[in-house]
Amino acid sequence: QCITHCPVGALSERDDTELVWDAIADPEKIVVVQVAPAVRASWGEQLGLSPEEAKVGKILDSLKRMGADYVFDTAFSADLTIMEEASEFLERFTAGELKERPMFTSCCPGWVRFVKSQFPHMVKDLSTAKSPQQMFGAVMKSYFAESIGVSPEKIFSVSVMPCLAKKSEREMELFYGEYAGHETDVVITTRELVKMIRSAHIKPDTLEDIPGDNPMSVGTGAGIIFGATGGVMEAALRTAYFTLKKENPPAGTFKQVRSTGFQENNGIQEAEFDIDGVKVRTAVVSGLGNTRELLKKIERKEVQYDFVEVMACPGGCVGGGGQLIHDGKELAFERGKNLYYLDDRSEVRCSHDNPDIKKLYAEYLEKPLSHKAHLLLHTEHQMT
Ligand code: SF4
C-alpha cells in the first residue's frame, strides 16, 4: 500500500527496511548508518519515550543492536555543510555576486526540486554545497573507508532521515578517482526506523545513550539545529561571524532568524546583521507556498537579501514527511524547540569548533572550498 505523507510533492512512501536487513546479513558489506538531526525529535513519540529520554545515542545503540557496524550522528556532516556553505557565502558575497539575487541554501531536496521545476533561472543562485546526507556518504566512501583500510565498494551507507525526498536525493553518484558508487545506498525514514526497532524486539527502555563512532563522533549544537527552520542560517552565520571577527558570537546573536510558528509573517523570518561593519541581509522561509511568494517578491525586487534559507516542509525537517504522524496535530514547531534546547546545552555550539571537523580538514580536505572539498562535497545541480 502506498501512503503519501510528503508535504513537498506527492511522493509515494516506499519501504526500504528489507534492503537494510539484507545488507546487515551480507558478510561482505560494512554497514554504516547516519541519523539526521530531526529524527531525534520524533522517533520516541510512539515508543513511549519522552523528549528528554529519546536521545540520539539511544538510536545509535538500537542500530548497533540490529547489526550495523558503525553508527554516526548526521550533526557531524551538518557541521561540514556549514563549513563549506558559510565559506561559499562569504566568497560570493565579497566577490559582489549577490547584488542582484541572494545565495540560497541547497540542503533540502524538496526545495531544490521545486526551484528546478518552477524557477529554473534561479538554480544558479543555489549554494553548490551538498546536503549533510550526501556529504556524509561522500566522506564515508573516501576518508572513512581509507581510515579503516577498505575499498569504498565494501561500504554500505544507510541514512535515517525525517524525509521522503531524501530517498531520491540518494541517487547522486560519487566519482572519486574511480567511480565509488552512490554516496548513500539506502535511506530509511523515522517511521521505518521505528518499524525496524519493533521488528527486532528491542525494548526502548533498555537502550543506552552511546556516542557515535570515530573519527566522526562529534556533532555541535549548530549541526543539531539544522533540523529546524532557521537552523541552517543561524549555524552558517555563527561561522561567518567567526571568519570575519576571529571570535565566536555571543550566545543568541542570531536568534532572530528562528521561526516560532508557521502562520507568523507568512512563514518568513527576515533579519539584518552587522558583522564587523559588514551588513548581511537574510531571510528564512519554510513551506513551498510561502517560498513561491518570497521568490516572486525577490524577482519583482520588492525585497533584497544576501542569503536565504529555504525548507520545503513547514517548520523544517522536524515536520518532514518521514516523521511519525499524529492525526490532526502539527508538531513541527514543538520538535524544533527541542532541537534549540539541545543546542543550548551543547558543549560545542559552532561548526568550526567541532574537533572532528578540524581533524578532517587537517588530515584530508585541507580547507573549506579546497580542490578536494569541491570534488567530494559540492555539486553542479544538474537540471534533470
Ligand atoms: Fe526533506 Fe527537510 Fe526538505 Fe522536508 S524540509 S523535504 S524533511 S530536507
From TrEMBL:
<keyword id="KW-0408">Iron</keyword>
<keyword id="KW-0677">Repeat</keyword>
<protein>
    <submittedName>
        <fullName>2Fe-2S iron-sulfur cluster binding domain-containing protein</fullName>
    </submittedName>
</protein>
<dbReference type="GO" id="GO:0042773">
    <property type="term" value="P:ATP synthesis coupled electron transport"/>
</dbReference>
<dbReference type="GO" id="GO:0016020">
    <property type="term" value="C:membrane"/>
</dbReference>
<comment type="similarity">
    <text>Belongs to the complex I 75 kDa subunit family.</text>
</comment>
<dbReference type="GO" id="GO:0005506">
    <property type="term" value="F:iron ion binding"/>
</dbReference>
<dbReference type="GO" id="GO:0051539">
    <property type="term" value="F:4 iron, 4 sulfur cluster binding"/>
</dbReference>
<keyword id="KW-0004">4Fe-4S</keyword>
<keyword id="KW-0472">Membrane</keyword>
<dbReference type="GO" id="GO:0008137">
    <property type="term" value="F:NADH dehydrogenase (ubiquinone) activity"/>
</dbReference>
<keyword id="KW-0411">Iron-sulfur</keyword>
<dbReference type="GO" id="GO:0008901">
    <property type="term" value="F:ferredoxin hydrogenase activity"/>
</dbReference>
<keyword id="KW-0001">2Fe-2S</keyword>
<keyword id="KW-0520">NAD</keyword>
<keyword id="KW-1278">Translocase</keyword>
<dbReference type="GO" id="GO:0051537">
    <property type="term" value="F:2 iron, 2 sulfur cluster binding"/>
</dbReference>
<keyword id="KW-0479">Metal-binding</keyword>
